[in-house]
Structure formats: structure tokens, C-alpha cells
Design a protein that fits this description.
It contains 13 helices and 15 strands. The radius of gyration is 21 Å and the shape is globular. The protein has two domains: 144 residues, Aspartate Aminotransferase, domain 1 (Alpha-Beta Complex); 231 residues, Aspartate Aminotransferase, domain 2 (3-Layer(aba) Sandwich). The strands form three sheets. The chain has a seven-stranded mixed β-sheet with strand order 4-10-9-8-7-5-6, with helices on both faces. Strands 1-2-3-13 form a four-stranded mixed β-sheet. Strands 11-12-15-14 form a four-stranded antiparallel β-sheet, with helices on one face. It has 395 residues and is an alpha/beta fold. It binds pyridoxal-5'-phosphate (PLP). Pyridoxal-5'-phosphate binds next to helix 5.
């Protein structure tokens, strides 16, 4: 017998991921199939990535057509798809400039570098500390894991990058007292994703914006997970009546094509002049042609409105379950970023759901996180709610 894909993967690759024991071979919309032909409804969406669903013809066609013309030339030259994507992002955001890279961590790296360089040039070398939040997640590179406020992400990797200071999320008093002349920026997720789907208190982000303004400190929003329509607005900060100085995007920007972006106001443009930062693969014609199709579809095809409507519908279903089962501690979230917290470990429940044909991701041990494609409909949500009803009844 030849060894299975799973056995070979576990033999040849680092075991950095705790993978579910299925091998997926095909996707269509909100559905996925494994190599045995078993069908799943996908509430993971590639971890908030596949907003237009799997095998989106728009994305597939854009990539196919571009791949016949030009895949890569380096950033020593101008290309059309990269320029068009930049223009669409700028015309639909607070920002004036964008830098393209390949991942969320790289977008945050770019933001950290830009904030430091701008502040150094404007205020001098003392001003370099970046305040981040407890329980945050900003990536796995050395700078971004140093920025991340979770010990488990940093364990064994010291010495970490210097110049980060951590405060509790949703705590303006602590933030205010953490600011001194050495602080150049505050970096946070508008809604904490990996941290367990934690929403900001109603006036928290306005307060953060105000504190940053008072001290001329830059506000960096990590919208890698919550951006691109996930919460029912193109960017999550639009719910809260503020704009940042810098914003990072990645996950859903390419619907699965590797792309990240760092956007900022014109004030910061000069700090990233020629030679200051670069990426070989950042914004290749191939990937930006795909991402352009994604962004245009999000803006024009009603999926962000669908995320808003389905988010309300889905949350109502989860809240009804909460009324039935006392093991459910909390239901929270915005748009199609929803969390259901249990009074116990959720991994077992997620596994039973998988056996029953539903893929769900767990965060922080006790939270089921639902981040399906934004194209999801009532029927699929009803099927999941019924499944959870059965699973919780059995506990
Ligand atoms: C996923 C994520 C990142 C890291 O993105 P990668 O593409 O995995 O590097 C950073 N910030 C947030 C908020 C994320 O959810």
C-alpha cells in the first residue's frame, strides 16, 4: 500500500500545524471536498481569506488571462495590474499611498518600519516604541511576533525585537499612561481575531484615535483579518467613525492568492522614499490582477452587504442556541466574523462538526470562530445551526 497524503505530509514537512486529518482536493463556493469525495460546508474560508468562495470564476479567469501575458518583472518597472489595484484601494480608503507585499506579517513589518522611520525623521531616534495590545496577533516574523501580545507565540524565540510595549485591549486609561516621548505608534486590530473574536467597546477606538492625535503618535490598524468586507464594511474601522494613519491588509485581499498591502496617508509618503523598503514578489502582475478582480467584485457585486445581512442572521441563530444550552458562554462578533465561546474546550465539538460535514476553526481553546466566505446564504447557515444544535445536545 502506498502511504497516504497525510502520512507522507507528516513524514516530510515540519509539524508546525495541527492539521485536521482530511485531505482537501476541490472547492466550489462555500463547499469543499476531500479525496474520498466527502463534502463539507466551509466556515473557515481559508481563515477569513476566501471571501468570494472557492474556485471563484472571476479570480480564476483573471489569473489565467494575466498568466498568459506577464507573471513577474520585479519592481524595477511599472506594471498595469499593480497600478490599477493601488488606485482602487486608494480611491476606496482613507489612504493616499500603498505598498504591496506577500502576507499579513509582511504588511505589518512594512507598517512598523514606516512608523519608525517617519518618527525618527520627524522627532529623533528616541521616538521608536510601538504600543500593542495584550492578546493581539500580528504575525510570525521576528518583528511581528515581538509586536504580538501572546506569550505562546513568542516562546523560545528570544531575544525578541526591542521597542514594543503592551497594554490591555479596551482600556484607554492604561493606554494613556503607557504613552511617553519614546512612543511613535499604537498598533492594534479593530477587532481581535486570533485573540478570540474580541470587539472593541463602543467608544474605545475613538478614544484611541484621540489619544494618538493628542500625542502626535501614529495609529496603525491591522485589518489583515477584519478588512475586505468581512465585518459588513470594506474596512472594519468604518464601523467606528475613525481613520488610522496606517492600515495593513492581507488575508482576503487576494481570495487566497498571496498578497499583503500597507496603506498610509500622504503625510507618511516621504518616509518611504526610494531604497527604503522593497519586496521581490510584492505586487506582481499575476497576483495583483487576481486581487484587482477580488476587490472589484467586493465593491460591485453586493457581497459586503451580504456579509452584513448574513452576519445578523447567523448571529441570531447562534444566540438562539445560547438560549438553549448553558455550556455556551458568549456569542459575539460583527458581520461574518463570529465567535461562540463555550465553558470548555471546543476542539471536540469542532471535530464532531467536521465528521458531520462542517469545517469550523477554534481559537483560544474555548472559542469556535466562524469566518465563512461572504457569499454564504441562509441555507448553509441553517444547516450549520442544526448541526451545532445536535452536537451541543449530545454534550
Ligand atoms: C493572519 C493575521 C496576520 C498574519 O498574516 P500572515 O499572512 O499569516 O502573515 C496578521 N495580523 C492579523 C490580525 C491576522 O489575522
Amino acid at each position: 500500500m502506498p502511504l497516504s497524503t497525510i502520512d507522507r505530509a507528516d513524514t516530510f514537512m515540519f509539524m508546525t500545524y495541527r492539521r485536521s486529518p482530511i485531505t482537501l482536493v476541490k472547492g466550489d463556493g462555500c463547499r469543499l471536498w476531500d479525496e474520498d469525495g466527502k463534502e463539507y460546508i466551509d466556515f473557515v474560508g481559508g481563515i477569513a481569506v476566501c471571501n468570494l468562495g472557492h474556485s471563484s470564476p472571476l479570480v480564476t479567469n483573471a489569473v489565467c488571462e494575466q498568466s498568459k501575458k506577464l507573471i513577474h518583472v520585479s519592481n524595477l518597472f511599472y506594471t498595469q495590474p499593480q497600478t490599477e489595484l493601488a488606485q482602487v484601494l486608494i480611491e476606496n480608503s482613507f489612504a493616499a499611498r500603498v505598498f504591496f507585499c506577500n502576507s499579513g506579517a509582511e504588511a505589518n513589518e512594512a507598517a512598523i518600519k514606516l512608523a519608525r522611520r517617519y518618527s525618527r525623521e520627524k522627532f529623533g531616534p528616541e521616538r521608536h516604541v510601538i504600543i500593542t495590545m495584550d492578546n493581539s496577533f500580528h504575525g510570525r516574523t521576528m518583528a511581528t511576533l515581538s509586536a504580538t501580545g501572546q506569550e505562546k507565540i513568542k516562546k523560545g524565540f528570544d531575544p525578541l525585537l526591542q521597542g514594543f510595549r503592551y497594554v490591555p485591549f479596551n482600556d484607554l486609561k492604561n493606554l494613556r499612561s503607557a504613552i511617553d516621548g519614546s512612543v511613535c505608534a499604537v498598533l492594534l486590530e479593530p477587532i481581535q481575531g486570533e485573540g478570540g473574536v474580541v470587539l472593541p467597546d463602543p467608544d474605545y477606538l475613538k478614544g484611541v484615535r484621540e489619544i494618538c492625535r493628542e500625542h502626535a503618535v501614529l495609529l496603525i490598524l491591522d485589518e489583515v483579518q477584519v478588512g475586505m468586507g468581512r465585518t459588513g464594511r470594506l474596512f472594519a474601522h468604518q464601523h467606528f467613525g475613525i481613520t488610522p494613519d496606517i492600515m495593513t491588509l492581507a488575508k482576503a485581499l487576494g481570495n487566497g492568492l498571496p498578497i499583503g498591502a500597507m496603506l498610509a496617508t500622504e503625510e507618511l509618503a516621504d518616509a518611504f522614499g526610494p531604497g527604503s523598503h522593497a519586496s521581490t514578489f510584492g505586487g506582481t502582475p499575476l497576483i495583483t490582477a487576481g486581487a484587482l478582480a477580488v476587490v472589484k467584485s467586493l465593491l460591485n457585486d453586493g457581497w459586503i452587504e451580504n456579509a452584513r445581512e448574513m452576519g445578523v442572521y447567523f448571529k441570531t441563530g447562534l444566540t438562539t442556541l445560547q438560549g438553549k444550552y448553558s455550556i455556551i458562554r458568549d456569542v459575539r462578533g460583527l458581520g461574518l466574523l463570529l465567535g461562540l465561546e463555550l465553558d470548555r474546550d471546543v476542539a471536540g465539538s469542532a471535530n464532531v462538526c467536521m465528521e458531520r460535514g462542517f469545517l469550523i476553526n477554534c481559537v483560544q481553546e474555548r472559542v469556535l470562530r466562524f469566518v465563512p466566505p461572504l457569499i454564504i446564504g441562509r441555507e448553509e447557515i441553517d444547516l450549520l445551526i442544526n448541526c451545532l444544535d445536535v452536537v451541543f445536545k449530545e454534550i
